[in-house]
């Protein structure tokens, strides 16, 4: 979860050199550089493309900017029927070519030593930013639209789903070996609304994705923060792996999904502030919670994004413990 970022001094140096987040994200060589920084520092098992989920609505002409202390903002939020009607599916090899070029550059640099994971935001999560105009604490604007004009929101979500499908397929064609759909705000939805306004459109994306490239299967990961109550439905969406936040119990999640999918997660990122003993103990607890590897499989990860204030040495300790403990736990016996 956010391998590269503000917790790394080398990332901050690269970003300062480029001048802004968007300048960094839109420079394929620089995006490659920061993608590889955590891989080189920590010896990770996969690389995650450096980009942002809001590149897709930005390519629709909504005018994305990042303001210090505020976060992402759109100059043209989608809050009227006219604004909805003006949305379109951008060509990923046109306005988003900087992303696919970054994927190609990273793949060359990785030289197949470890796989590269691409990603996008989910249609609903993208819509949250597009309709609210930026970050929100209560999502009042999009929820008002959802309840008062569900037809409008459905049109936004359908366009987003088609855009994300093309975007992820472009990443796969460029060399991404797995892709993840981040449904960061799906957990803010009421029970019945999650399937109608979030999972439905993630299924639409999954159904349209390239699932094999370069002779290899391309796994699809779905992650809904706060989505533990909908685990079975997510597992039946067609994805290969379900990501879990730190509130879920891996062992119970495995029982509920019956090893039909892999599970990814789910250490609380705040553990990384608690010192080496706690980091190693909690990493082992997560691994033990999943149990012995079976038909599904477990990808160790944080339960959400790493804090910008995290000490990189804490991440090094975590990676070391995950590698050493999991190898010992799953070592074949004679």
What does this structure look like?
This protein has 334 residues and is α/β, with parallel strands linked by helices. It has a domain at 21-243: TIM Barrel (Alpha-Beta Barrel), CATH 3.20.20. 49% of the residues lie in helices and 13% in strands. The chain has 14 helices and eleven strands. A seven-stranded parallel β-sheet has the order 1-4-5-8-9-10-11. Strands 2-3 form a two-stranded antiparallel sheet. Strands 6-7 form a two-stranded antiparallel ribbon. Strand 2 and strand 3 form a beta hairpin. Helix 7 crosses helix 9 (150-174) and helix 9 (150-174) runs parallel beside helix 10 (191-208).
What key phrases describe this protein's structure?
334 residues; alpha/beta; TIM Barrel; 7-stranded parallel β-sheet; 49% helix
Kindly estimate the percentage of residues that lie in beta strands according to DSSP.
Answer: 5-15%
Q: Average pLDDT value?
A: 95
CATH class of the domain at 21-243: Alpha Beta
CATH architecture of the domain at 21-243, please? Alpha-Beta Barrel
The total of beta strands comes to 11
Summarize the model shown.
With 334 residues, the protein is an alpha/beta fold. The chain is built from 14 helices and 11 strands.
